[in-house]
Design goal:
single chain, about 180 residues, alpha/beta, three-stranded mixed β-sheet, 6 helices, 6 strands, about 45% helix
């Protein structure tokens, strides 16, 4: 490919439109294209998105590498299993809730989840590598779902009442 066109992997699919994705952890560029679109149009599309691709590859390069199984990951798991339950217990008390069960696991696209039926909070193991204030934000966020299930005005009112700076913490967490 030409020097000004980023390298990309082309996947022909039964799709309507061209789709470009920059995948973590290495910044691989993947283009999904309809079978009928000529390769010249695909190259022009990728060329036109070169600055967008470079920006996203730079952002991905700045992120920590995903956790791999091994002793270091298990040490992070132990640390999070030690620090998260007392924080959950504290915030559950502050919010007037019974303390839910806490699970830690590797997650690819979320910082935490809350199952309102089983009253279980699952936290992303990656939180062990982040500042404790960001863990606190995720815990309060998930506990707020035990009060209000969805992300609506009542949910945000619960967040505002208990953690007024939650928006800043969310921004920091999602930028890391």
């Amino acid at each position: 490919m030409a020097a000004d066109i980023p390298d990309f992997t082309l996947r022909r699919k039964r799709v309507k439109n061209l789709r470009l994705t920059v995948k973590a952890p290495h910044g691989e560029v993947v283009v999904s294209a309809p079978r009928h679109v000529p390769e010249s149009a695909i190259v022009a599309f990728v060329s036109g998105k070169a600055s967008w691709i470079a920006k996203h590859q730079e952002r991905i390069a700045g992120q920590p590498q995903p956790l791999q199984p091994g002793p270091a990951t298990e040490a992070l798991r132990r640390r999070l299993k030690q620090s998260a339950p007392p924080m959950v217990e504290h915030w559950a008390g502050v919010m007037g809730l019974a303390t839910p069960d806490v699970t830690i696991r590797r997650m690819t696209s979320r910082w935490g989840t809350c199952n309102t039926q089983t009253r279980r909070i699952t936290l992303n193991l990656e939180l062990a590598r982040r500042d404790v204030t960001l863990l606190e934000y995720v815990i309060v966020h998930e506990l707020a779902h035990l009060i209000e299930r969805g992300h609506n005005a009542r949910f945000y009112a619960v967040m505002d009442a208990h953690l007024p700076d939650w928006r800043l913490r969310r921004r920091v967490l999602n930028a890391s």
